[in-house]
Structure to design on (421 residues):
């Protein structure tokens, strides 16, 4: 109560006009400060707004970029998936192709084997289909001509008494021009006497060793082949192949098999045919066969 | 499968005939009849119906060329396909056979796949 009374007494001490002026001055300063601050705040807000707009624009751009990237990533993922699928399909198809190739190769092999078996069957059948010497020789010639592609050949047969090999039949070469060949001549001449011509040397060696002579690769020197004719365990002659048909360039596996078959069967068939001819086609007596079997 | 087609093989060599029959036996739809030469071939043609003829050229009594000529002049068989079998060097015979009306030729030494392919082609067999 006492303090309030003192203040009232001070205010009252100053002139009213001064107080009003002071108040006005204070009000003006306040207003000035207020508006200045307001202006600054407005500036700050405008600046902040500008920055936010920029940031928004940047974020929108970024967003658009990210969206594009996402779409692009999806597309890449789809493509990768597609590539994987195609790779799997390719692998499957390649596997099928390999399988088909294998089947095809096997089919070709089987075809070739069938062809070989058919030829060997026919050769064997034909060699034993007759008991006439002439027919046997014709079959041998035809067989080698048709199945192997032989153009010229000769069949040599041994004469035990004379120890010589004699040409007994030929095809594509004149029989009378073919020499007989002394067995063991090469060994006994011992530097004396002329050597055997190459073909005769091959024929003699084949007869003595029982080892077939069959040219390898491209055909060059004659004879192209010389096959021992076996009758049981012993050699009875040779078949000499001098030349082949033009289209026949080299021997193949089935030719060697045919040579083996002909060499093993033709000698015996010839001998049997000869004795059958001498017997004038008469069958042996049953009793004599029975005795032979005992 | 029962044979649907009938083939006449005319060949004087028993070995060649056997080879041809063996090759053709792989075609289950083809039945084969054999003839020793051209005359025998004509006889068998007259007695039956054939869808194809396969003939050698060099044969005794009647050769393959005469056979082709006779078949083509016969109204009953003039359209039957004919395959001639020739040797590598006999291009003249081959040409002559084709001029006379043969449809195709096979060269000796014969190979089964070649025989089968020609027969299938002329008989229009798919498999």
């Amino acid at each position: 109560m006492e303090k309030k009374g003192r203040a009232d007494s001070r205010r009252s001490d100053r002139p009213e006009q001064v107080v009003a002026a002071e108040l006005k001055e204070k009000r003006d300063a306040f207003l000035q400060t207020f508006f200045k601050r307001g202006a600054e705040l407005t500036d700050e807000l405008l600046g902040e707004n500008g920055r936010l707009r920029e940031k928004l624009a940047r974020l929108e751009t970024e967003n658009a970029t990210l969206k594009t990237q996402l779409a692009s990533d999806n597309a890449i993922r789809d493509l990768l998936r597609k590539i994987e699928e195609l790779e799997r399909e390719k692998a499957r198809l390649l596997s099928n192709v390999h399988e088909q190739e294998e089947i095809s190769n096997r089919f070709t092999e089987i075809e070739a084997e069938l062809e070989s078996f058919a030829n060997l069957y026919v050769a064997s059948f034909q060699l034993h289909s007759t008991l006439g010497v002439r027919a046997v020789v014709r079959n041998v010639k035809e067989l080698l001509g048709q199945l192997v592609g032989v153009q010229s050949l000769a069949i040599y047969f041994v004469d035990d008494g004379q120890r010589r090999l004699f040409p007994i039949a030929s095809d594509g070469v004149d029989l009378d021009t073919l020499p007989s060949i002394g067995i063991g001549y090469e060994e006994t001449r011992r530097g004396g006497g002329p050597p055997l011509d190459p073909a005769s040397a091959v024929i003699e060696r084949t007869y003595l060793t029982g080892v077939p002579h069959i040219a390898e690769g491209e055909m060059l020197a004659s004879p192209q082949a010389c096959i021992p004719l076996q009758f049981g365990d012993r050699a009875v002659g040779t078949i000499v192949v001098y030349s082949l048909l033009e289209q026949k360039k080299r021997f193949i596996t089935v030719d060697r098999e045919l040579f083996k078959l002909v060499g093993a069967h033709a000698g015996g068939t010839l001998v049997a045919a000869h004795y059958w001819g001498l017997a004038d086609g008469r069958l042996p007596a049953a009793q004599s066969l029975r005795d032979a079997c005992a | 499968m029962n044979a649907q087609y009938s083939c006449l093989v005319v060949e004087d060599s028993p070995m060649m005939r056997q080879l041809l029959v063996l090759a053709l036996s792989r075609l289950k739809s083809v039945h084969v009849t054999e003839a020793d030469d051209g005359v025998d071939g004509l006889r068998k043609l007259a007695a039956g119906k054939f869808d194809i003829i396969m003939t050698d050229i060099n044969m005794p009594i009647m050769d393959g060329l005469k056979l082709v000529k006779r078949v083509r002049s016969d109204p009953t068989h003039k359209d039957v396909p004919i395959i001639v079998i020739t040797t590598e060097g006999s291009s003249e015979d081959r040409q002559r056979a084709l001029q006379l009306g043969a449809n195709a030729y096979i060269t000796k030494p014969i190979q089964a796949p070649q025989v089968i392919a020609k027969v299938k082609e002329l008989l229009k067999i798919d498999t």
Summary: Chain A touches chain B through 21 residues (CB under 8 Å). The two ends of chain A are 172 Å apart (CA to CA). Chain A has a mean pLDDT of 88. The longest strand of chain A covers residues 234-244.
